[in-house]
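Subject: for your reference before the review

Hello V.,

The reviewers asked for a structural picture of the protein, and I figured it would be easier to keep everything in one thread rather than splitting it across files. Below is the amino acid sequence we used in the manuscript, unchanged from the supplementary table.
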Amino acid sequence: MSSRPYVLLSVAMSLDGYIDDASAERLLLSNAEDLARVDEVRAGVDAILVGANTVRSDNPRLVLREPRLREQRRARGDHPDPIKVTITGSGDLDPRANFFQLGESPKIVYALSSTVSTVAARLGTLADVVDAGDPLDVPKMLEDLASRGVRRLMVEGGGAIHTLFLAAGFVDELHVVVAPLFVADERAPRFVNPGAFPVTARMTLAEVRQIGDCALLRYLSGEADA
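And here is what came back from the structure prediction:
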């Protein structure tokens, strides 16, 4: 088994590179057709990772929408939904969040060493809390996921998590859905944090697809196989 999973990073953004606006309500960038596509992609991975801030702010379900896909996973001996994974620095996670309450798949929380005992006590049996070092040791975290049978990992954000994986060079495949609107607000979160890492090697454009009024751009790293 590989020392780390294949990492697929997925993001929807505005034409000017924002993944949300600055309001209290979440900005919906994808359309219904793209949400169905994401469901199909999720069905083909072993785990989905989002940051703790996304768990707090968006309260995502991270379960498959289509029952047919869940039954297909059951038939091949997998969990009906991908394993849920999050990363926390503060340890501020609510056990009542959808992340922990919905779905039959295991939940894994990678926490900084200083917060592991607090997070474990707060979540109890809802999740497996793992010491991720301090600062966060991304290779060690990916190695741990691989040891749990995670071969394909889907990273869904937010911006700090996108930046973390891209800057560390651990993105094998990138799905960017571009929505036909502008946010134009510097307070809003961007796809990646500006100035967080230098220019990296160019990726290979593997696919361009129209999805309703959105466009999907699928890129591969230099080492990934289309």
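For the response letter, the relevant points are probably these. The first helix runs from residue 32 to 43. The chain has seven helices and nine strands.

Happy to draft the paragraph if you're swamped.

O.
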